[in-house]
Amino acid sequence: xxxxxxxxxxxxxxxxxxxxxxxxxxxxxxxxxxxxxxxxxxxxxxxxxxxxxxxxxxxxxxxxxxxxxxxxxxxxxxxxxxxxxxxxxxxxxxxxxxxxxxxxxxxxxxxxxxxxxxxxxxxxxxxxxxxxxxxxxxxxxxxxxxxxxxxxxxxxxxxxxxxxxxxxxxxxxxxxxxxxxxxxxxxxxxxxxxxxxxxxxxxxxxxxxxxxxxxxxxxxxxxxxxxxxxxxxxxxxxxxxxxxxxxxxxxxxxxxxxxxxxxxxxxxxxxxxxxxxxxxxxxxxxxxxxxxxxxxxxxxxxxxxxxxxxxxxxx
Length: 315
Hints:
Elements: H1 4-19, H2 44-55, H3 60-77, E1 114-119, H4 122-130, E2 135-138, H5 145-159, E3 165-169, H6 172-178, E4 182-185, H7 187-192, H8 195-203, E5 207-212, H9 215-224, E6 228-232, H10 248-258, E7 263-267, H11 275-279, E8 285-288, H12 290-293, H13 298-314
Helix pairs in contact: 1-2, 2-3, 3-9, 4-5, 5-6
């Protein structure tokens, strides 16, 4: 019978070069990170994988997800394999794939959403729609409900007659009223949303995009059956305070394999030099903010990004 020490050592030896290790001074997730209700306290593969994933730098919740998946796969296959990183949706407890086949799934969006511009107001939405950016998100920040309603409605009008798909960040009620294509929610917004409100968004025909920052949040997102998942932050970003450290390309590639039934958006610190490496993970969309709104010539910047992404697909 394999020991948890042997499991931990084998996983770290197989994957340390790819994922690295916990940053100096960061405590590793303890074996009990999943909590006493995990039911796997006597499972050597679970305990060993939990320790190994903590040593590889995964936060406690994500280490627990991975350890559960490793244990499930070992039971399913009858053998422990340290070399193959878990990527079977069923081993993580995800719902049946493909997600679009579920009766409670949100409406589908294109599998490849392409360049995804996150924009602060309607003027920028109109400008990037005219520049040919295929996917846009209005991230309008205001506590004035009337101002929000007006801005969302104006943004929806701004993309009419263009091929652009417009998602509204957070303001889902205004998005429904204005007839937007979709809405994007963060994890905190999703957690605070009652099931009846989530059903209202789905029944209105809106597409749903959800932010994720690791395995545990991907599992939570999958339960909602969204139209796409956004994964990040891939690289360091100063635009907003992130709940986790930058994920890196290696983790992004692992996330993309697990969530391969979804349209996928990579976000966070992606620039021209990093674009090819990000697209090589298999994600079908890259979200940018400053690359467009801080550009000296936003139309020229959009044209460059569109051409670069098209060139990657052509290869």
